């Protein structure tokens, strides 16, 4: 039941971030703080794991693979040079959810996490495209395949990081 609630909670978080973008930044930040207070050990994992994802998205934005509408609120304008703030918060929420679900994820065969992560990640970005949160100037098919490939690597990295941080007892 816990994992169902976590999954549904993350889907709501995702929707607020992607569909709402800058409208719900305060709610997203509040949810993250609440999560980190309740699951205080997931913060170090979320920060480390998100750094790779945020960096990867930064590269995709700089290469023009993805673009996002500019924020209308001047408070969020500085993020236009990097990646949208809502996307940074989404990464932090996603990696926090991975930490909370770590026991379940580590029980699965590695190949299923990599394939599931690859398709799930690419579908998440494609859904963001359909909601108007991002655009894909190079076209849907090639961008989807590229993002799926990136997410297969990222999924493997997340499993490795979970294993390393669990071994060391650092979180």
Automatic annotation (TrEMBL):
The chain crosses the membrane at residues 12-38, 45-63, 75-101, 108-129, 141-162. PROSITE patterns: PROKAR_LIPOPROTEIN. The keyword Electron transport does not apply. It holds the Pfam family DUF2878. Keywords: Membrane, Transmembrane, Transmembrane helix. The keyword Membrane applies. This is DUF2878 domain-containing protein.
């Amino acid at each position: 039941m816990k994992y169902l609630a976590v999954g549904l909670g993350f889907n709501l978080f995702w929707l607020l971030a992607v569909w709402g973008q800058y409208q719900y930044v305060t709610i997203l930040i509040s949810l993250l703080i609440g999560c980190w207070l309740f699951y205080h050990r997931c913060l170090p994992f979320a920060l480390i794991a998100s750094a790779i994802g945020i960096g990867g998205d930064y590269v995709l934005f700089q290469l023009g693979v993805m673009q996002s509408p500019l924020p209308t609120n001047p408070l969020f304008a500085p993020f236009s040079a990097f990646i949208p703030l809502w996307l940074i918060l989404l990464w932090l929420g996603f990696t926090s959810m991975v930490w909370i679900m770590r026991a379940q994820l580590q029980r699965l065969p590695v190949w299923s996490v990599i394939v599931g992560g690859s398709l799930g990640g690419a579908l998440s970005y494609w859904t963001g495209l359909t909601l108007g949160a991002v655009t894909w100037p190079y076209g849907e098919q090639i961008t989807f395949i590229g993002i799926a490939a990136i997410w297969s690597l990222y999924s493997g990295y997340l499993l490795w990081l979970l294993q390393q941080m669990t071994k060391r007892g650092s979180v």
